[in-house]
Design brief:
Layout lengths: L1 E2 L12 H10 L3 E6 L4 E5 L4 H16 L5 E2 L3 H10 L12 E6 L5 H10 L5 E5 L2 E5 L8 H7 L7 E5 H12 L2
Antiparallel strand pairs: 1-4, 2-3, 5-7, 5-8, 6-7
């Protein structure tokens, strides 16, 4: 499970220990977090959409925050890593990002994003994921700014390749 926009500077602060406790109290099992940026691995027999809604409600009730939650199952995450459409060019995992969306973006949004890929940047859409390679980093990337913004028309959050593969590793350890 991926939370959008927590622990960015002084905004939306949630301690990972408190987040783990809140989800465990809500009935989720094997709750683990990775880093401080809203990466959660947990066990549930519920459908992904149900888990996302329940987790958003838990965060709102416990912490008073409206945080978008995007969920991928272990099987979906493994397919995302296996797919790796930019692996032949994306050699620095910190500059290789995957945006996780709650649904496919509209074609017009994708055309605008593709037009922003400059200076060797690449963007590949695969279902509800956008793989983006930023060879010069994300700091000045207009593509990255658009991917990180709210203009996609869908719930979305991004992680670098290191985090994506670590989350799969944690899910596999369950």
């Amino acid at each position: 499970m991926l939370l959008r926009g927590i622990n960015l500077g002084s905004r939306n602060r949630i301690a990972m220990s408190a987040l783990r406790e809140a989800f465990a109290d809500a009935g989720f099992e094997d709750v683990q977090t990775y880093l401080q940026s809203g990466n959660v691995v947990l066990s549930s027999g519920a459908a992904a959409k149900t888990v996302a809604r329940k987790c958003e409600a838990v965060i709102a009730d416990r912490f008073g925050l409206e945080i978008a939650v995007v969920v991928r199952t272990r099987t979906e995450l493994a397919a995302i890593v296996r797919r790796n459409p930019l692996g032949d060019v994306a050699k620095d995992p910190k500059r290789y990002q995957v945006s996780f969306l709650d649904r496919k973006p509209k074609a017009e949004v994708m055309r605008k994003l593709e037009a922003l890929a400059v200076g060797g940047e690449r963007l590949v859409t695969s279902g509800r994921e956008l793989y983006a390679w930023h060879p010069k980093g994300v700091a000045r990337s207009k593509l990255w700014a658009a991917l990180a913004g709210r203009g996609l028309g869908v719930k979305a959050t991004a992680r670098n390749w290191t985090t994506v593969t670590k989350l799969l590793e944690l899910a596999d350890a369950k």
